[in-house]
Amino acid sequence: MIIPEALAHFQNTKNNNGTMNTSNLFGLLDLVLTCVGHHNYEVAEVTFGFWYKLSEDPYHANDDDRTIKFKPYIERLIGAVCRHCQMEPDHEGVLEESDDFAGFRSRVSELVKDVVFIVGSASVFKHCFYSIHGQNNLPWEVTESALFIMQAVAKNILPDENEVVQSVVESLLQVPESAHAAVRFTTLLLLGELGEWMDKHPAVVEPVLHCVLRSINDPSLAVAASNSLEAITSICRDHVKSHFDILLQVVSALVTLPIPTETAVRVVKGVTKVCSRLPDHQIADALHQLCKIHVDELTRICQVENQSKVVAKTSSDPVYWLDRLASIFRNLSVNAKKSEQHPCQLAITFTWPCLSMTLDKFQTDRRVMERCCRCLRFALRLIGHQSAPLLQPLVTQMVRLYNAHHHSCFLYLASILVDEYGSENDCIGGLISMLEALLPRAFQLLQEPQGLSHNPDTVDDLFRLFARFLQRNPAAFLHSPALPAIFDCAMQAAALDHRDANASVMQFLSELIHTTRTREEKLSFELRDQLMSTMLRPKGPILISTLITASIFSLSTCSLPNVADVLLEFMLVDRQSISSWMEQTLENLPRQSPSGCVAVRPEQLQDFRHKVIRAETSLELSNALRDFSRLYR
Fold first, then answer.
1. Which of 211, 409, 446, 546 could form a disulfide with 373 if both were Cys (CB 3.0 to 4.6 A apart)?
2. CB-based contacts of 415: which residues, under 8 Å, 6+ apart?
3. DSSP structure class, residue 305
4. How many whole angstroms separate alpha carbon 467 and alpha carbon 481?
5. Contacts of 32 (CB under 8 A, 6+ apart)
6. In angstroms, rounded to a whole number, what is the distance separating the alpha carbons of residues 294 and 281?
7. pLDDT of 507-540, one tens digit each?
8. Using DSSP, how many helices (H) and how many strands (E) does the chain show?
């Protein structure tokens, strides 16, 4: 308790410029460093909060003369925690992530990253390296802990550094296979952290890649090697594209490696970025091979009769392969001319039957459906309008499966289709038909008792779909006979206290009101006038009442800016009517809070109304709503 209280004392005695008075601080630092030097690392860890707070002072002061005074203390701190990070000499293998000591080392890494600016990353990096370089009889645990601290600061090393990093990389490449597994593990992680430096020094990339690939099949090193490989392929992709065939083999072998699924997905991401750098005439075949690895496994899973054999996060789980496919489509970056066939079109056309089969096979499994829709989303985004041949079969299947199981991810995927094809005259009719086929089941779900609060994902995705129509083809959407029912649903959903769902509802309402003042070439005057006369003006009083009362009694404060956007958009169209409707709404508000106390006086009601009507920005409206709602809470 002494250390936090002492720091609090110094924080409360600041100079006029906001920095701490250091007249007695350095004596305290000596005392705290004595604690850091205690043989028990748990005692040292008690001081970490002190160092975090302390580092804020020189950081905000931005005064080199002041910062340099702290330098010797931070050097001693880093040296002490480096010693604490040493494993036991008789420790075998690498540390398990669940190990308490591994957790401590992780917190040390974060601490070093937070305070290293005071002494300089390059200085720490060099000091740690020189402390172990050329020391033949140094205990392995000392070497490993120095490498661990180097790894914490390696990303801060400037790519054009030419003094010591070259020697470091050469030394790391010479670590023998007979070295302790923990030393080799940290060596691999450190190599991965130096990716940006290696990108500027391509001569070392190939030997480092070979070092990583040699280690990836070792069960104790697979995680570190995979993380390093992901960094190298993502950052140094231009220098490893000649090794793409070998990287394909690694992707194929990932299923046999003892690594977390998330790590495997990152490796696929890195290899995909290398694929993006291949010559244009090679990308189509390379992508086909990359996709085929995963398509073959998904096909095999779909052909298994007994779904009970599916085990989550294993190779029998379709999500295991869908996440990898999604990573490919998400991270591939190809510059294709609109007049030419997209180099990725053939691979996506090849993948579609497998994805369609997966949708049918696992149609009752929400988790698989969400991942499959996510994969399709990235595939559609990748090739844009050239995915048109998939449009009809995809929409047909989506509508059928949504009506059977109402997975909201199909509504989200529908919004992607509208975003891509909504401006195309040849497609808009089919997309409107898709909307009208999805709506009955969605409305049925939301009209059930507590339907809105029990299905916020459906609300979120459904109103995002409506907003996409308004953004891409408002005329076609406003002609839909379903529009009145959609607007009524929006007014009911406006009081739903769910951040994402409410944001989508408010975005839809803002877009809808905004269409009444769009340019003539986008929407005819007759259609805009019809929207105002048949919907917004007749239902405006109810909408304003719903928005105001929801802001006071239902919605969280974080949702009020979205309500403010709708009110501002409406006032830009008809401020006079809003003023009248506001007056009616405020007259009907209770004058007492739920506890029975007087909540609001007549002058406060009028003040709120005037603030709203006179507001010119969304921020002014949001502040007015927030202040007024507090009277009732």
1. 409
2. 461, 464, 465, 467, 468
3. S
4. 16
5. 3, 47, 50, 51
6. 22
7. 999 999 999 887 656 678 888 889 999 999 999 9
8. 33, 0
